[in-house]
Amino acid sequence: MKTVHFKRLAILLATLGLGNAAHAERPAAHIDGKVHHVVIIWLKQHGDPEARRKYIEGSKRLSKLPGVVSYDIGPVAGIKREHSSPSVDDSFDVAVSATFENKEALENYSKHPEHQKVIQEVLKPLVSHYKVYDFAD
Q1: Cα torsion 23, 28, 30, 32: sign
Q2: Centroid of chain to Cα 106
Q3: How many CA atoms are closer than 13 Å to the CA of 56, on its beta-carbon side?
């Protein structure tokens, strides 16, 4: 009986491992258009208006870096919906939506010394955790 369960577990793990390996080896898509960079931020002082203001003001410096087409930042909108949904996440404090000329512009932005300085000195001390989503036109 234990051998059957062990074999099933081994097959399941092998299948998951192959699936992940196939996903990791998939070549990146060729991207010619604009690239959108969305960052969702949860602050250490969750819900604190002053911490939120500091993050937003500090982040605005990044909008001036080369390759940035648009840069929007703000707090949770607090939209009242008729029905609640587990798909709607308003647990975060601040979100950033930035658009870049192309993939290389976003890559250069991420490595830019001013970006690194703002992240390390201004933003990171305020942040509990964050998620990044990048997608292309």
Answers
A1: positive
A2: 13
A3: 14
Would the pLDDT of 38 be above 50? yes
- The structure tokens 């000329």 sit at 101
**How many Cβ atoms are within 10 Å of 73's Cβ, its own excluded?**
19
The confidence score (pLDDT) of residue 75 equals: 97
End-to-end CA distance of the chain: 53
Give dist(CA 17, CA 13) in Å, integer. 6
Distances (CA, A) of 82 to 75, 79, 85, 92, 137: 21, 10, 10, 21, 31
Instruction: Tell me the C-alpha distance between 114 and 76, whole Å.
Output: 26
Q: What is the structure's pLDDT at 9? A: 39
Q: How far apart are CA 135 and CA 36, in angstroms?
A: 5
